[in-house]
C-alpha cells in the first residue's frame, strides 16, 4: 500500500494541482529519501516546471521541463499541496516550493519512499521500471496464462509479483481471488486458461472500480489530504464474514502476506 489505484489517484491529483507550475526552491529534509546526491537533486530541479505526471505500476514519474524523477511511495508516502508558509510537518521529508506561493510536500511516516533523478527521454529504461511486468489492461489472457501455468507458487503470490503483472497489491489480490471463487493458495500450474482469463478480467474490473473511488484507505492513504472510498466496497479484505454464504472468513498468511478468503466459496 499504496497500490495502483492509489498511485493513479495521486497522479491525477498532481496533474490538477502542480502542472505546469515552476519550482522556485527544493528542500530535502531527509537525504535518504533521494536515491543519489540530495543536493544535486535539489539544485537540478530548481527553476524547472512540471510538464506532466506519468505512472508505471506503482511508480510515479514527474516529467519536468528538462529532467524527470521517479517516485515510489512504498508503504506510507503521500503528496500534499499546501501554502508555502504552512508549518512543516515532522514527517515532511521533501518540499517543492512553487511559483504561486504553494508548496508540494512529500510526507512519509516510515521513510521508506524514494525519489530518483532520471533521464527525461529514457526513463522507462530505469532498472526499477524495466523489471515491471505489464499492467492488466496491457496483456492478453494467453500471455498471463503462459506466465503462471508452470509455477508452483500460489496464485496470490503470483498476483503480487510485479514482474508478472504490475499494480496489484495485497488488498486487491485478495479481492480478485474472491471475485473468481478461487483459493489464494492454488498453485499457478493448477489453473486452466479459462480461470486465468477470469483472473485477468477480475483484476481489470477491481482496479478500475478502485480508481473510480479514488483508492482504498485502510490506515493512512490520502491524496492531497483526501481519503479514498473503496474500503467501503471491499468484499473480503478486512471483513469478518463472507458476503456470499455468510460464513466466517479465514485470515492466514499466504506467501508471507495477510490473506482473507472464504473456505466455502473459494475452492
Automatic annotation (TrEMBL):
SUPFAM superfamilies: Glucocorticoid receptor-like (DNA-binding domain), N-terminal domain of MutM-like DNA repair proteins, S13-like H2TH domain. Residues 235-267 form the FPG-type domain. Its EC number is 3.2.2.23, 4.2.99.18. Residues 2-113 form the Formamidopyrimidine-DNA glycosylase catalytic domain. Binds 1 zinc ion per subunit. Involved in base excision repair of DNA damaged by oxidation or by mutagenic agents. Acts as DNA glycosylase that recognizes and removes damaged bases. Has a preference for oxidized purines, such as 7,8-dihydro-8-oxoguanine (8-oxoG). Has AP (apurinic/apyrimidinic) lyase activity and introduces nicks in the DNA strand. Cleaves the DNA backbone by beta-delta elimination to generate a single-strand break at the site of the removed base with both 3'- and 5'-phosphates. The lineage of its organism: Bacteria, Bacillati, Bacillota, Clostridia, Lachnospirales. Its cofactor is Zn(2+). This is Formamidopyrimidine-DNA glycosylase. Transmembrane segments: none annotated. Keywords: DNA damage, DNA repair, DNA-binding, Glycosidase, Hydrolase, Lyase, Metal-binding, Multifunctional enzyme, Zinc, Zinc-finger. The gene is mutM. It comes from Ohessyouella blattaphilus. The active site is at 2 (schiff-base intermediate with dna), 3 (proton donor), 58 (proton donor), 257 (proton donor).
